[in-house]
């Protein structure tokens, strides 16, 4: 395919243990890339994919759709209007009896690890974290308290020894708190105002049964296509997913690409 077709973009979607070589082949061929989370079977492979993307000046979007969920975007809009983020909380619980091919932290809890950092829009300065085993031979319970460089706090709760799947998040600013059941609804408490509850479907003006539209999946793929066409970095490009390698400064000039902001969604 890479030898015979003139391609703009390849979706390279597979289990992370098989990802590295196909991803590198696509990038070496000069093709933009979409990959699922996690970006490789370990951080070392993710770094190799990133190096190839930078060397070949290509986009690599990672499928972290929680960033694009309507409730996430609404929470960020309301909190950013206050001028200061104070706290972000991510909870992702499951009953998981088998760890899969990689750790539950790397290939599963990555959703809320990424979401907390993305909502705060800063990098961690201090982290106190615990990983423990409950009823298994592998770590299945992770808890962390984070202080970010911008002064905000973060709390991560991820228990794979729980009774079932729950995905929640909170985002707080001065005088505003947003409580999300991802992707179905958001509850907003603003000082001096009545409690407000909005569904994900209401936020996008769509059918409640059209889950991909408000879950973030459709917005993510539309965003990627627009970025490829217009020469911009997508919101969840690998350069941003790996925190210390964000697309800034020389990278932008070299590629002629600017990082897409929340408003572009």
Explain what you see.
This protein has 265 residues and is α/β, with parallel strands linked by helices. It has two domains: 101 residues, NAD(P)-binding Rossmann-like Domain (Rossmann fold); 146 residues, Dihydrodipicolinate Reductase, domain 2 (2-Layer Sandwich). 31% of the residues lie in helices and 28% in strands. The protein is built from ten helices and eleven strands. The protein has an eight-stranded mixed beta sheet with strand order 5-6-7-4-8-9-10-11. Strands 1-2-3 form a three-stranded parallel beta sheet. Helix 1 packs parallel to helix 2. The protein is globular. The C terminus is likely disordered.
């Amino acid at each position: 395919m890479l030898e015979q077709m003139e391609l703009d973009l390849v979706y390279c979607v597979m289990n992370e243990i098989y990802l590295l070589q196909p991803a590198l082949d696509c990038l070496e061929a000069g093709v933009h890339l979409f990959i699922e989370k996690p970006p490789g079977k370990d951080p070392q492979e993710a770094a190799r994919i990133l190096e190839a993307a930078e060397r070949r000046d290509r986009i690599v979007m990672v499928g972290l759709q929680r960033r694009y969920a309507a409730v996430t975007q609404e929470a960020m809009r309301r909190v950013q209007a206050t001028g200061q983020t104070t706290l972000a909380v991510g909870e992702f619980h499951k009953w998981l009896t088998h760890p899969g091919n990689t750790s539950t932290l790397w290939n599963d809890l990555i959703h809320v690890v990424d979401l907390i950092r993305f909502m705060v829009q800063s990098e961690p300065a201090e982290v106190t974290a615990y990983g423990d085993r409950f009823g298994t031979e592998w770590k299945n319970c992770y808890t962390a308290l984070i202080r970010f460089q911008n002064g905000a706090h973060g709390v991560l709760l991820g228990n794979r020894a729980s009774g079932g799947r729950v995905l929640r998040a909170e985002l707080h600013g001065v005088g505003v708190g947003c409580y999300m059941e991802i992707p179905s609804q958001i509850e907003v408490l603003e000082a001096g105002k009545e409690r407000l509850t909005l569904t994900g479907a209401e936020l996008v003006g769509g059918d409640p049964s059209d889950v991909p539209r408000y879950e973030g999946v459709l917005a993510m793929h539309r965003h990627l296509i627009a970025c490829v066409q217009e020469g911009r970095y997508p919101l969840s490009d690998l350069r941003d997913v790996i925190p210390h390698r964000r697309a800034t400064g020389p990278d932008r000039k070299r590629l002629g690409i600017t990082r897409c902001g929340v408003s572009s969604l």
